[in-house]
Write a structure and sequence with these properties.
The complex is a heterodimer of chains A (223) and B (192). Chain A is built from twelve helices and no strands. Chain A has 223 residues and is an all-alpha fold. In chain A, helix 10 packs antiparallel against helix 11. The chains are: A mainly alpha (223), B mainly alpha (192).
Chain lengths: 223, 192
């Protein structure tokens, strides 16, 4: 930078010469031994700078700062909704009374298989053991506010054997007694045999085997 | 690529979380700021305290940094303001910033060991350094500040005025007086 101009004083000219650089004064100053800050001071300042930068980096790139937050939240809601539905669906597919009943009814109805379980339910149970599911269900029920607890309370029918409920729905009223349990059904077959009604006994036994394929009596070869 | 980046770019990078940018910026200016403070307050312990305060203030203010002026001007303005606070808070019993006509350079300046060098050139250099430092310490604080801001920070007259909060004419006058006195102490002519 030059400050020289027409009509300037000798003092101004001297200052201009100095400001142009390369003056003897500047050279002499440059030749002075350079005082430096102690190394410990350097470390203290740089450590403070790094710490402050780290805090900002955590804020800028932290778990709550990304644009992916909204999609992730939506995905989490979907996963929670599906998981909750799986928890409240009864093994037989019977809906749980309460608020979630509408969701259960919205599920596609599947014909009751022999085992009484849908593929989806079996898959869910393979991930979460039944005992654990019941335990979690109890915990969620206990943790829920009192006015909402009933919404996840298992239906009484859920505790009964699935096929029993299914048979009862389709069986005539006069057969209800001996169809109430496998033992009663087998006793009924025995009574038919004793009464000489072998054909009826055989037909009833065949029906019994269809309904209770896993029962020990069903594994006995037909006579 | 940090070597070519300007001070302003480095400070902006640090503002956005780049700690290495700050380190490079610090390495560039640490010596100049320290010598400015030391030769103004003339006490190493005070200079170190002020030095740390200034950099901490810069770190704390990083989020608000906008390159409205040259970073060097901004940094030395922080230093100048902190120094003024320091002078104002001194106890009355402490010596003020004015040197009261010191004839010898301060003990904390590490001058060349003239007697051990032998060669005339080294001896002359040591004597010149002694004269210059003594003259520098004898300057009024405002004139010394103007000279140090020019030599250590490379500020222009306008930037010296901005950093010290005075008009350009005042800054020019201060620097002119400082240069005249220092040249006389060196035995140099007004043009040297």
């Amino acid at each position: 930078m030059t400050m020289a101009r027409r009509g300037s004083t000798p003092e101004d000219d001297g200052l201009d010469a100095y400001l142009r650089g390369g003056s003897r004064l500047s050279d002499a100053y440059r030749d002075l031994p350079g005082a430096e800050p102690p190394a410990a001071l350097d470390e203290a300042v740089l450590a403070a700078a790094r710490a402050a930068s780290g805090r900002r980096r955590r804020l800028v790139h932290g778990p709550f700062a990304g644009s992916w937050l909204a999609p992730a939240a939506a995905a989490a809601v979907v996963v929670l909704a599906v998981g909750l539905t799986l928890f409240v669906v009864d093994r037989s597919g019977a809906p749980v009374p309460g608020e979630l009943q509408g969701e259960d009814l919205a599920l596609p109805a599947a014909p009751p298989p022999v085992s009484g379980r849908t593929t989806k339910e079996e898959s869910a149970e393979s991930r979460v053991p039944a005992a654990k599911r019941q335990h979690e269900l109890r915990e969620r029920r206990d943790a829920a506010p009192a006015e909402h607890r009933f919404t996840v309370e298992p239906a009484p029918a859920a505790a009964a054997p699935e096929m029993e409920s299914g048979v009862r729905k389709s069986a005539p009223a006069d057969e209800a007694d001996w169809r109430a349990s496998p033992e009663a059904w087998l006793a009924h077959i025995e009574s038919l045999k004793r009464a000489g009604r072998a054909a009826e006994a055989e037909a009833s036994l065949a029906e019994f085997r269809r309904q209770f394929p896993d029962h020990p009596a069903s594994r006995v070869p037909a006579q | 690529m940090n070597a070519e980046r300007s001070d302003e770019a480095l400070m902006l990078a640090y503002r956005d979380g780049d700690a290495q940018a700050f380190e490079r910026l610090y390495r560039r200016h640490r010596g100049g700021i320290y010598r400015y403070l030391l030769r103004q307050c003339r006490n190493p312990a005070d200079a170190e305290e002020l030095f740390q305060d200034i950099w901490m203030n810069l770190i704390r203010a990083r989020a608000r940094y906008e390159p409205r002026a040259r970073f060097t001007t901004y940094l030395y303005q922080l230093a100048h303001n902190r120094l003024i606070d320091h002078f104002r808070r001194r106890r009355p019993s402490d010596p003020g910033p004015e040197p009261a006509g010191e004839a010898e350079p301060p003990s904390w300046e590490r001058l060349p060991a003239a007697e051990a060098d032998g060669p005339e050139r080294r001896a002359a250099s040591a004597r010149q350094a002694q004269r210059l430092l003594a003259a520098l310490m004898s300057l009024p604080a405002e004139q010394r500040a103007a000279f140090l801001l020019r030599e250590e920070a490379g500020l222009s007259l306008a930037e010296i005025a901005e950093a010290t909060g005075v008009s350009a004419e005042t800054a020019k006058s201060r620097l002119r007086y400082a240069v005249q006195k220092l040249r006389r102490a060196l035995g140099a002519s007004p043009d040297e």
